[in-house]
Design a protein that fits this description.
Rossmann fold, 9 helices, alpha/beta, globular, single chain
Length: 212
Amino acid sequence: MPDGVSDEQAVLLTDILPTGYKGVRGAGIQPGGTVAVVGAGPVGQMALETSFLFGPSKVFAIDQVPYRLEEAERLGAIPIDASQVDPVEAVLDQTGGKGCQHVIEAAGPQATVRIAFGVLAHGGTLSQVGATTDPEMTVNLMALFGKDLTYRVGLVSPQYAWPELVPLLQEGKIHPERVFTHHLPMSDGPRGYEIFDNRDDGVIKVMLDPTR
């Protein structure tokens, strides 16, 4: 394991940190650009944190879970609670009707993909890393034609992101381990999954420790 990388950080390097970072890289964030991350769960949190590395002017976090949005706000993002407002209208209102140039979809369901397309600005890039179990997706193709957009979607190969992510961890520029809100022994694995599935107790991500 590289020097200066904690066990918790190393665990995240094998999956969600490279996934969120792939979304950010795929969105092509430019200094001063506007960003939206749709889905502020574990992957979305990784995308939110690493998006700030590229100097955006605004970063919106869209979710329905209050404590996820609170964590996003601590990072500097503008929280949009999709259970309380229309997230597309909210983002458009705060971007002068333009939407965001760089959008990362980090959840996967059709509803969040539609939101992601909805908040995307003309000429913008949507990068989807949220995994979906839906074999088909319905979108308004005519609406997309008018946006002249770029759409990227795909799985991540974590090791290809390590040369960029490991130095960021070693230099203390990112702290992804903050998402571990719960630490349980490996024997409590079923309970950990239950807590996460039910979104109990302010959980963002559960660490199962085999040494406990």
